Description:
By secondary structure, the chain is of the alpha/beta class. Helices cover about 35% and strands about 10% of the residues. The strands form seven sheets. The chain has an eight-stranded parallel beta sheet. A six-stranded mixed beta sheet has the order 9-14-13-12-10-11. The protein has a five-stranded antiparallel beta sheet with strand order 16-15-29-28-27, with helices on both faces. β12 (about 490-495), α19 and β13 form a beta-alpha-beta unit. It is elongated. It starts with a helix and ends with a helix.
Amino acid sequence: MGILFFLFSACNATSTPEYKSSDISPEESQVIETTESPNSSGIAEDDNFLTISQNKLERDAWVESMISAMNLKQKLGQFFMVDLWPMQGEASITHAIQSIKKHHVGSIIVFKSHPHQMLDVINRSQEVSTIPLLVAVDGEWGVDMRLDSVIEWPYQLALGSATDFDPLYQMGKAIARECTRLGIHINFAPVVDVNSNPNNPVIGYRSFGENPHRVGQAGSAYMRGMQDHGIIAVAKHFPGHGDTDSDSHKTLPSVLHDRNRLNQMELPPFQQLIQDGVAGIMAAHLFVPNLDNRNQRPTSLSSYVLKDLLRDSLGFDGLVFSDALNMQGASGYGGAAEVAYQAFLAGNDILVMAQDIGGAVARLEEGIAQGEITMDEIHQRLRLILQKKYDAQLHQYQPTNTRNLINDLNPIESKNTVIDLYQANITWVPNADEHNSSLPLRDNQSIYTLALGSSSKQIWQDRVGDYIPSEHLTTQTFEKILPSLRSNDHLVIGIHNLGKTPPKFGMRDSDKALISKVSNRCKVTILLFGLPYALENIPNNVNVLMVGADRPEAQIAAVNAILGKHDVNGRLAISAGPWQEGQGEDLMGSGIPLGIPFKVGPDPVSLDLLKAYENKTINTRSAPGGVVMVNHHGRNIYSSAFGSHTYDEKRTVLLGDLFDLASITKVASTTLCVMKLVEDGKIDLDKTFAHYMPEFEESPCGGVRLRDALMHQSGLPAWIPFYVSSLDQRETVYSSHWQAGYSQKVADTMFIRDDVREAIWDTIAIQELASDPTYKYSDLGFLLLGRLIERVTAEPLDAYVYNEFYFPMGLESMMFNPWQWIDRDHILPTEDDTLFRKQLLDGYVHDMAAAMLGGVAGHAGLFSNADDLATLFQMLLNGGTWQGRRYLRESTIDDFTRWQRYPGNNRGLGFHKPDRDFDGGPTSNIVSLETFGHTGFTGTSVWADPVANLIYIFLSNRCYPDAYNPNLVRQGIRNDLQTEIYETLFR
Length: 987
């Protein structure tokens, strides 16, 4: 009876409360559900058809009214596109605008400038034109190609390795929005030339690669993204400029291939885009004798190419644009007026940058008079142009406003898409002997990093070091450690500041020599932050991660690959040296991918202000160390490990380190399981504990509804210090080693008697309930919920939650009793327990009751790093899905995370909520009331805000070395930090 006596007597012990603030296969049954709503009436389809027909009638009426109101010179002027160069000064702008007025020009193309300057020029041009102008930009990688202060999109060659083309579609969509914001209607993109010649001096990095099928797929995705959002895409340069060794800006390049080769290589991408509805195609200045062998005649001036091949054979019915007629590839074919005339005769609908518009108009009038051009043809081609103007809303033109222009051109969504693009194109080409063994990086070997081509430490090195202990080398320190490198050591070499033109594409001889020197000494992985043509200089006995560019977004994408935070499935877009087009192997990734702080908010460095709160945590001795993580729209935009495991600063905190989550266990384990069991119909929240556990039939707690336990509205006491009376019976209650009857480990060299477990439940069973239950935070309700889960599932709590959630979600660090599985160097210690366990607690749960239950309980015991905790809450923000699999229904999540509307109770079901009066609650006062999460006694908190689509995590070991250290709460660090995050992102 001694063991029961100490537990019963503990009921009356003085307590120090915790701080609480096609068909579906069986395998596809877990995949995200999608529902199609059949339309049985057909009314919507009919209405849609009628709307389209009405719009067409209105458009045709406007087009015909415009044609009937024009004289011949106005009609002919619509076929010309004038270039404006704002950076060349006012005189240049004035000259172009005068040409617009004088010659009734139909369209303009704008070049290098600042956004406000470009918009001003566009508005001024529209103002003087009697017929609204189509405005074009040559923006192959977005308006960034011609503007400063805007999103920097990748070159096309950096996008040619993707096997998932949705990010390219999203890029097209984002670029369409940029264009629309600036009053632009046409983008001369994508380039769908197949760059089969690595020495091509003019296409190169502007092409998606050398595989015509993949070039067509990539080009089509980019095109559809633009056109689905209102911008005319123009595929170029027809019939294919990829296999040339000269620049058509300077001369007339020749393509000498026969028709079979053209059909197999050059033409398929254009066929793909025509089939997918591209609105425009640009004619190239090329001499292709197998298409037109007349006296060095450019394809841009060839009716055989533009009418017979493009229109008749390939079935293109959109606008044909000439390449710039001032280029040497065309301008050598007669005078400027004659070149424009020949281009029109050949089939170009819009004559881009013709040099003598007045002379060209006169020559067209002469051609009409001589019968070489009919008015029917003029009107037919004019209708196509005017239809595009109507579709661009130019029939009701309004000047574009300049207010908030720069912010509008730099939205969060676009910055996120840039990372997605690099992520989708990263390609893993391992050494044939090693395959996937070297990535993702693990800390079970010595990791070294080296950045070649840069004298400063790179973003990727910093981020790798945040997660994995690694030594960052310079070329000088590399030479010193070279003799000591062993075969199991791993050297990761980033190659930076590469070029984009042949012959070496920026690859330095010194870099090649260093790689050769080390490649046979240890495991080497190359991060190639440049175009894939630089691979020609990389030996194939090393592992290569082809990144494609040297921008911050590309470096972060590389880190996600290195650390296994994102799938890698790219394939090389070109062949170079020993490397072959199409090479690449998949790497599986999981978790929330890293982002970069300047991806959000108007201030690029504002998130660095968060460092002040991290420093305050350490300086006020609120905790020796911790982790702060912010995820926005499913991306980790801020993650920082600060301080040390203990105040002696012997071990720096890493982002992958595990923390005792304390009461976060209630939501990240127990509530999660309850949600699943409710969905599966195995429990009813309005039933009592006794309904599922008859042994509590006669106990006060047996009459408690599960719903009330989740709400902390049960009337149960807050907690019971079960351990206190055991201190006087230590010799009989505990053993220093495992033996029969002592199988549960409480801490190192400390095992508890097996019968204590049931004694704990007996003690809970006799607790009296409050006579008028109101909100009172209670561990006991969650202890009972944990036991109920085990009873209903016939599995241990940790096994059930692991199998249902943690394992399939890839949450490798989320676990109970991590001392069994994880090197303790990666677990932050909690209390230096001088009373109960008389040792430093690292890897053992801090909560005494959970420890006495073997480290697994419904109220405490869970450990995790910040990444896995964020992933779990991201699944909840996603409405119950993660990486294509559904774990919970959205309706279930909504029900559990909403305020339950009990007077004086601000909780959801299991989840904590903000104080509805914003008066000293567990969160900042500026979060949305939809926010849900929990805090933990050990100095932890996690909050998910569905309105802001944001997850905020603060993990610390504030109870080291003393569990009663109040500084973290007194200083208000967690809440103040959350306020700073919101003010930074949303001010």
